[in-house]
Design brief:
Blueprint lengths: L1 E5 L2 E5 L1 H27 L2 H11 L3 H26 L4 H24 L3 H20 L3
Antiparallel strand pairs: 1-2
């Protein structure tokens, strides 16, 4: 007899039920292994949006997110998940495709940025802010 925790409920499985459940769980784990390794190794999709936010490019990041997820991720997920009958793996593949496109686009934008001009712009904003504080109202 084995006690399994399934979605907040505890379920006691005996004999054949236990063997069937464990076999199905192992099959799912084997199928999602490559996807889990992809997510662990590809942390760029966490870094690139942070660079966009920190650089003051929130509007640009929003457009990239809309394009990546709504134009690439969701259609790929729907096609793989429902049209090609891949199921949950197809839906997850669509989200991975959207995250990959987002990472690539934001990385390209970050790579093509003139950081010297960004520094000059940041200094200009700082000095303008000091002048506004010094001006009597």
């Amino acid at each position: 007899m084995t006690l399994f925790h399934i979605s907040g409920n505890y379920k006691i499985l005996k004999g054949r039920q236990q063997h069937k459940y464990l076999r199905r769980t192992m099959r799912v784990r084997q199928d999602i292994g490559p996807f889990i390794s992809y997510h662990l190794l590809n942390q760029c999709h966490l870094l690139a949006p942070g660079v966009a936010r920190g650089s003051g490019w929130q509007h640009l990041g929003a457009y990239v997110n809309l394009g990546a997820y709504y134009l690439v991720g969701i259609p790929v997920a729907l096609i793989l998940g429902f049209a090609l009958h891949v199921g949950g793996m197809g839906l997850w593949s669509g989200l991975v495709a959207g995250a990959t496109v987002q990472s690539l686009l934001l990385s390209i934008i970050t790579g093509l940025t003139s950081w010297e001009n960004q520094v000059i712009e940041a200094r200009r904003r700082i000095y303008e802010g000091e002048e506004e504080k010094a001006t009597p109202v």
